UniProtKB/TrEMBL annotation:
The lineage of its organism: Bacteria, Bacillati, Bacillota, Clostridia, Eubacteriales. GO terms for cellular component: cytosol. Residues 1-13 have a biased composition (Low complexity). Decomposes hydrogen peroxide into water and oxygen; serves to protect cells from the toxic effects of hydrogen peroxide. Its EC number is 1.11.1.6. This is Catalase.
Length: 686
């Protein structure tokens, strides 16, 4: 039985990779051909009537090459245009047979191939990675029952409750239509006007103003399914569920000043981080969890479980960890895989079904509709990255870019010519059938009264934050609203979010010179500790440590530091005054990866400075800048005893700052400081 499971596991694991291999082309050492396979003798000059004459229309090679170039770009996604992706696998920890008959959730020995795409929402494809925005976290499972997609975000709620408002929300958050600015930013009038007049957005706005909207890395970013779905087991019993992806490295964010600087220094910061981690074997891992609610408990909570602006607090409904996804392979071609991948919340397998969440219901139409335009027609499922590992059999035909060659004359169901095949299978034989939920009511355009509470969970989110996180939210409101030109909109927002927390918006109002919010202290006191990033896992693993070396460094000191950093599983990188080898006191040399001119402190998680103390003015100036910027962003700093002249005296006793007095002591403290990520109690006014 064990060998059988291993064989099946290997077949499933390799199925998608083998399928993609069929479409790969290696041009190394090959002759150049046209797209029709004609080998060409020349590819540098167009066909002309004489050396200086006009180009001839008969130059089929020129026409083919230019035409292909002119049509290389496809429409970018209206939302989630900016993104990256990777291949990986999902493995179950324990069978979920009690709750669902979904095949890939039965056997813990089976590994299911997956593809994951991370993205920002508002910006165009050329925008920066580190903007303040919600992040997409979409997962495609290539199961033996067909493709199953989870189209998630890193924030568990959304701005609207009904999909009919989705075009309005996107129009509002996109750049102002008269100027097409600002890019990838919600800090402008139309977005905040939408918020003020659609107060169901309050909860999501609180998340968007928090550190959750500026993740440090896709590898340190939580994912949430947002919508309520159903599990259905073999006996037909239904259980409501929500999906969570919890990063093994913990949930960590940048600080706002960093995000703006990184956007200029390295706009590809997050996508490069993901690619480099996979290339170095530091595979990103996320534990997969579900919150489960029996169907008979649907109305037992103080909110509507179908409301996409509400979370299920983890303290009330715990997250059951059921497996892990691991990303272990970068794409071979970004366009073919990342740009052409098509996700859809309606891609289901038996044992999983929808609920009546009105936002989800609209997405079930919209996702197919947008792929028709973006990917050229109804055959986007035949693009290699989107192909199911299950062979597709149906009587659909034709359409743009059809790749399947159907060999029978029958293109309809219920037939005699093909013995009524392909045939359907009953639910008891593995065929998909929708859950038979009883639905009744008048046909109306309205919202359920159970969706009318917009502020209780927004307040719970704020109540759950640490003091540092609360300050960041307040600062985010100050920044965003200071970019809003219309003072009436500013005041509407201050009054609206006064319903969330009066003290929070009092500080914002005072900063903006606006009227104080009306009302009294918040009546909402509930707290959910799981919402605070301060309560997340903290590790030193894969954090990037910049080691600034000067000429004459002590080799023993350097070796001790490198050894300790490697044991702590960090990623040390040497920074020199320039890219020339750096000589130590014993004559040995280290080759730097970066220079103080080309690197930047915002691109590192910690800084270590080692040297002899005998440095030139240029080194001293730039090294001081590195230290001061790192200090301002609350990140760990170590300076060896011989390099203390680079530190301001008042920095030396601050949290997360280490001055090397002995090899073992200062390296151990530095590693501990790195594991903490940030040192928020540091005085940054000095």
């Amino acid at each position: 039985m064990g060998n059988q499971n291993n064989n099946e596991n290997n077949q499933i694991k390799n199925a998608k990779e083998k399928q993609l291999d069929e479409f790969k082309v290696d041009n190394q050492g090959k002759n150049l051909t046209t797209n029709q396979g004609l080998t060409m003798s020349q590819d540098e000059f167009s066909l002309k009537a004489g050396d200086r004459g006009p180009t001839l229309m008969e130059d089929f090679h020129f026409r083919e090459k230019i035409t292909h170039f002119d049509h290389e770009r496809i429409p970018e996604r209206v939302v989630h245009a900016r993104g990256t992706g990777a291949h990986g696998e999902f493995q179950l920890y324990e069978s979920m047979k009690e709750y669902t008959k979904a095949g890939f959730l039965q056997d813990p020995s089976i590994k299911t191939p997956i593809f994951v795409r991370f993205s920002t929402v508002a910006g165009f494809r050329g925008s920066a990675d580190t903007v303040r925005d919600i992040r997409g976290f979409a997962v495609k499972f290539y199961t033996q029952e067909g493709n199953y997609d989870i189209v998630a975000n890193n924030i568990p709620v959304f701005f609207i409750q009904d999909a009919i408002k989705f075009p309005d929300f996107v129009h509002a958050v996109k750049p102002e239509p008269d100027t097409e600015v600002p890019q990838a930013s919600s800090a402008h009038d139309t977005f905040w006007d939408f918020v003020a007049n659609n107060q169901e957005s309050a909860h999501t706005v609180m998340w968007a103003m928090s550190d959750r909207a500026i993740p440090k890395s896709y590898r340190m970013m939580e994912g949430f399914g947002i919508h309520t779905f159903r599990f259905i087991n073999e006996s037909g019993k239904s259980t409501f569920f929500k999906v969570h992806f919890k990063p093994v490295l913990g949930v960590h964010s940048l600080v706002w000043d960093e995000t703006q600087k990184i956007a200029g220094k390295d706009p590809d910061f997050n996508r490069k981080d993901l690619q480099e981690a996979i290339n170095t074997g530091n595979y990103p891992e996320y534990e997969v969890g579900v919150q489960l609610l029996p169907e008979d408990k649907e109305f037992s909570l103080d909110f509507d479980i179908l409301d996409p602006t509400k979370i299920w607090p983890e303290e009330d409904i715990p997250v059951k960890i059921i497996g892990k996804i691991t990303l272990n392979k970068n794409v071979d071609n970004f366009f073919a895989e990342v740009e052409q991948v098509a996700f859809h919340p309606g891609h289901l397998v038996p044992g999983i079904d929808f609920t009546n969440d009105p936002l989800l219901q609209g997405r079930l139409f919209s996702y197919t509709d947008t792929q028709l335009t973006r990917l050229g027609g109804p055959n986007f499922h035949e693009i290699p990255i989107n192909r199911s590992v299950v062979t597709v059999h149906n009587n659909q035909r034709d359409g743009h870019s059809r790749q399947t060659i159907n060999t029978t004359n029958v293109s309809y169901h219920n037939n005699s010519l093909s013995n009524n095949t392909p045939k359907t299978l009953g639910e008891d034989q593995g065929g998909f059938a929708n859950y038979q939920e009883k639905v009744e009511g008048n046909i109306v355009r309205s919202r359920s009264k159970s969706f009318e509470d917009h502020f209780s969970q927004a307040a719970m989110f704020y109540n759950s934050m640490s003091n540092v996180e609360k300050k960041h939210i307040i600062d985010a409101f100050k920044f965003e609203l200071s970019k809003v030109n219309n003072k009436d909109i500013r005041q509407q927002i201050i009054d609206m979010f006064g319903n969330v927390n009066i003290d929070m918006m009092t500080q914002v109002a005072q900063y903006l010179g606006a009227n104080l919010p009306k009302g009294e202290a918040s009546k909402y006191n509930k707290v959910s500790p799981a919402l605070s990033q301060e309560n997340t896992i903290k590790k030193s693993d894969t954090l990037k440590v910049g080691i600034i070396l000067s000429e004459g460094y002590n080799l023993d000191e350097f070796n001790t530091m490198i050894k300790a950093l490697n044991v702590a599983k960090t990623m040390p990188e040497i920074i020199g005054c320039n890219l020339s080898p750096i000589k130590g006191s014993d004559g040995t040399s280290q080759l730097p990866k970066h220079s103080l001119l080309s690197a930047d402190p915002v691109l590192f998680d910690a800084i270590c400075v080692l040297g002899s103390g005998n440095v030139d003015p240029d080194f001293k100036m730039r090294a001081k800048m590195f230290i001061e910027e790192t200090y301002k962003h609350f990140k760990p700093i170590l300076v060896s005893q011989s390099m203390t002249m680079l530190l301001k005296p008042e920095m030396k006793d601050q949290p997360g700052v280490t001055v090397g007095d002995s090899k073992d002591k200062f390296t151990n403290k530095f590693i501990t400081d790195i594991s903490a990520h940030r040192h928020w109690d540091r005085n940054i006014t000095i």
